[in-house]
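Job type: complex structure
Entries:
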Amino acid sequence: MPLLGLLPRRAWASLLSQLLRPPCASCTGAVRCQSQGTRDLSPQHMVVREKILDLVISCFKRHGAKGMDTPAFELKETLTEKYGEDSGLMYDLKDQGGELLSLRYDLTVPFARYLAMNKVKKMKRYHVGKVWRRESPTIVQGRYREFCQCDFDIAGQFDPMIPDAECLKIMCEILSGLQLGDFLIKVNDRRIVDGMFAVCGVPESKFRAICSSIDKLDKMAWKDVRHEMVVKKGLAPEVADRIGDYVQCHGGVSLVEQMFQDPRLSQNKQALEGLGDLKLLFEYLTLFGIADKISFDLSLARGLDYYTGVIYEAVLLQTPTQAGEEPLNVGSVAAGGRYDGLVGMFDPKGHKVPCVGLSIGVERIFYIVEQRMKTKGEKVRTTETQVFVATPQKNFLQERLKLIAELWDSGIKAEMLYKNNPKLLTQLHYCESTGIPLVVIIGEQELKEGVIKIRSVASREEVAIKRENFVAEIQKRLSES
Amino acid sequence: MAERAALEELVKLQGERVRGLKQQKASAELIEEEVAKLLKLKAQLGPDESKQKFVLKTPKGTRDYSPRQMAVREKVFDIIIRCFKRHGAEVIDTPVFELKETLMGKYGEDSKLIYDLKDQGGELLSLRYDLTVPFARYLAMNKLTNIKRYHIAKVYRRDNPAMTRGRYREFYQCDFDIAGNFDPMIPDAECLKIMCEILSSLQIGDFLVKVNDRRILDGMFAICGVSDSKFRTICSSVDKLDKVSWEEVKNEMVGEKGLAPEVADRIGDYVQQHGGVSLVEQLLQDPKLSQNKQALEGLGDLKLLFEYLTLFGIDDKISFDLSLARGLDYYTGVIYEAVLLQTPAQAGEEPLGVGSVAAGGRYDGLVGMFDPKGRKVPCVGLSIGVERIFSIVEQRLEALEEKIRTTETQVLVASAQKKLLEERLKLVSELWDAGIKAELLYKKNPKLLNQLQYCEEAGIPLVAIIGEQELKDGVIKLRSVTSREEVDVRREDLVEEIKRRTGQPLCIC
């Protein structure tokens, strides 16, 4: 079984010789010790992370999703040409004589590969895992090169918009559950975007390029986006203006109705399909009780190439600084959409499996929660230890070892100091600094009397319990608290 | 070339025509006719070599985890993590890749098994090979002098995969380590206690933990007359004693590795020994071994260790085994390895080891290699070989015919008649909002039988059936899938009733 690294003797010698060499340049601060755009997760970070992932995964499970996992890397050919303009951001593995590999860029393409490979026609799955992108890391915004994604997807041919509605319901449940404040989910449809471009006069060859400009409207002002489209992407200015009329619209189901009546858009078959599906979607979202969180937003365009139908993106809203001020967007924390053509790209016969899904941007959420905790000065416990085994005198190691084994064997979380003769104050201090609520104390007095002292760290109250009852007493106290 | 392209275009058009006809539900003869035309065209095209779509597979030595495997994995991790937490460990995570220079020179000959990332103009990176070197790097980088941590993550080795035997190129490791300068053998004993707790809780059968010490082995080789240059290679021969007989091992050492026969015999006297603390006592008295300072240190520590293991109540699971030699150079003190025992074929037969499932030891020198001033942080730890355990647990569950559910859904919201989609959507949403795990079929008008069948296949225990009459009466039919018993529950009481039946607490905190 492969375990810890095996080192032959000469490697040991080489390691020893490294000790005599000047210290690792990285650790003197001259060069980095760690790869750029990545970070270790300390115990404090992990506690926050675990809580959040727990909530996300419970929600996925509540909706009947099955867990799955894929390798960190795929055959390069599997990932090639699936990401449009973003392809350049993939991490490749070195050609070491075997297969050409790349680190996965998201969890969706591996999912499509999995479905095609296993000839699965229907599946409701979640996948929590790391993905890697060689973007320029902007750590301030919580954007790393290695980050966690939480994906939920429903694959299969079903009656329209029911799974799509469930995806939005899930997004709402998660964002509400995380208590990050108010949020909004923008919804649009690729067919509406394409239809809109067509009726505005965008040449088909420019569709994807213009799409990705429009997508920047949540971060850039319209005039800057217009500039990019006209100057950098060669779009006719009057076409850009026509687009401008549409993409600045957003609203509820009434906007959908309005667009149905739009003289230009209603001539476009694609757009009509999209609008029809959105109308049905809003019906279901109303039955799910979340219609008030959803906004049909014509500026939503999403980066990735593979969406074919509804698309959505959730943004957190800042609290308005003054009454009457509109809530500002502070960035998206979840997104997704329908992608009916992806699996077919992997199937040898091109058999399609329609899919719809969502991805929770947990890194952004981690960052927000961590910032909040910092501001409030909140500290989290990084262990779950319930009981500490202590002694006030010397030569009580054996007793402590026996006691702690009894606690562990009863499933109680317990610790002791790895010292033969620790001072009582040191032990109590350890409890206070790590948040351990109870101490069991054994000393000469207690041994004579056949008791154990149980002490509450918070109240400092102590009570003597008969040795044979102490585990039961601890369990009672723990279940009460 | 152009011909081929033209043919391909014809095939494509004909294919579309066929699909169109099928969609329109045209007559069977018409479809058949057009399909025949399509096949003829395809035959003309011949084998499609240039546009051979890539093979659908995961990279060599890696695999997906299906929902079923995930369910098993979750069970196993749950048990392991609970144990780590019970012992007060914090958890950390490190990136999947490290700077190449961090990993270079740490794994000796195995360095060629490291996955490198392509040089794409940035830093040179490699995928982590284990969790221990990243841990040492983390300690040095953060100037930590003590921590008790666990880390569960995948590691990467370009080994020759043997997937049937659970050997992959990407696989999970579950590591627990205690770093810091403490009084001797207490943390070491806790590591062994943890190993025993985990292996017992996993219920994968009887196991044995072999224990030895680097210093005892080094001392033993020295006094037997093994030359320094042969230490490693003799080590790896001795290590095979759990699988092959002493005769074979001796032949390898003498015949293949050029060891003097009398030296081999002296080694043989020692390495065939295993036992409890009495063996430790015995060796402390051994005329030759007791002359060796290193060996005495090791034996002294083992004696202390056995005292603590007895207080921990696990000494019956521990065997001091002088043949335990694997991975020697990494460690500086105690080393241990847990093996599963096969049930004896016949009464009285000794149980054989069938492969190790966990291992570890003390490694006091590693962190010092990352520290600029060479400051040492003594460490002791263990690693659970979960990949093997996953397959054992899966097999055990199958043997017990225990159904491995891949979802946790408690209720299916079903309809008995048509046109009840809206009601189903409303009800399932109520259940979700109350924290109940519920599903519905993504069909406007599903047949009741299909809905019930879905429950049986997925192991969903309850069905909440909406029917026209029930709607009028303000009730929902709650049906138990296994017993098939149905009872009408008032709409407003449904959540409580479901929670009561599924043993869930009434408030979702």
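Summary: Chain B touches chain A through 131 residues (CB under 8 Å). Chain B has a mean pLDDT of 90.
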